Amino acid sequence: MDTVAALHRPVLAWYSASARSLPWRAGDASAWAVMVSEFMLQQTPVKRVLPVYEEWLRRWPTPEALAKEPAGEAVRAWGRLGYPRRALRLHAAATAITEQHAGEVPRDHAQLLALPGVGEYTAAAVASFAFRQRHAVLDTNVRRVFARAVTGQEYPANATTAAERRTAATLLPDDPETAATWAVAVMELGALVCTARTPDCVRCPIAGGCAWRQAGSPPWEGPARRGQSYEGTDRQVRGKLLAVLRDAPGPVTQAQLDAVWADGVQRARALDGLVTDGLVEPVAAGVYRLPG
DNA sequence: GAGTCGTGGGA
DNA sequence: TTCCCAAGACT
Fold this sequence. Notes:
This protein has 3 domains: 31-130, Hypothetical protein, domain 2 (Endonuclease III, domain 1, Orthogonal Bundle); 140-174 and 182-214, Endonuclease Iii, domain 2, CATH 1.10.1670.10; 234-289, Orthogonal Bundle (Arc Repressor Mutant, subunit A), CATH 1.10.10. It is 56% helix and 3% strand. It contains 15 helices and 3 strands. It has helices at 2-18, 31-41, 46-59, 63-67, 71-78, 85-100, 109-113, 120-130, 140-151, 162-171, 176-192, 211-214, 234-247, 254-258, 264-277, and strands at 252-253, 281-284, 287-289. It has a 3-stranded antiparallel β-sheet with strand order 1-3-2. Helix 1 (2-18) packs across helix 11 (176-192). The structure holds a DNA duplex. Its EC number is 3.2.2.31. One of its GO terms (biological process) is mismatch repair.
């Protein structure tokens, strides 16, 4: 289909001219560096990732370096990025890479997918960005660009569909190197131009062929996207509890934890969840620490 | 498949 | 100010 190939040139040209200079995109960025960035970028804005990423790569330049440290150090160094289980999983992935892959991030997509914390998106992203392989990379940005440009809807559905995978596969350039650049280019287009709230169609290289624009930019009529209530949830309590652990040099007491949330029932439930997840370790009666 | 899991900044 | 949501994974 010429209509397919016709999308490639303008998007690739736009990316060449407009891409952000990000450390994990530098020519000397290792596969490990790419993997660290992908874990951190899951549901987290680039701006907040940057300083933590730099610190992590300086401190742990290889999977082996991270694997040598207690998981709690990874959790502490995660700082306030959010979803701290990612730190635990990244540490576990580093351990698996060290023990099962001779310290080298695997190039094989299936082996990547088998690592802790690596799902469909991250496996494709690492294989594509770090190893320049041909994979469809479907993140929230890409899904939104395709929903608009191809399907003519303002937003994609909540969960990735088979139709989206077909679309992504169809649009993927044949040449692996070109496919890898295409993947990051579409993602960048979604992040900078085809944004969720107020797309900047004036600067969009494919606005002329965008199905959503051609349809008059109709508003989203699908099911309401689920909101993320936060205030008063267990997640908020977990965050407060873990912040106490992160900010303390060593083990903390029950009293220190009790001080951050009034509801004892909810507080106990949240703490129990953190212990179950392996983010917190009981050391003695009423004493807790980050995992050793 | 729907719920859970943090955090903070921009519109 | 309030609300939306930002390169998902896992159960």
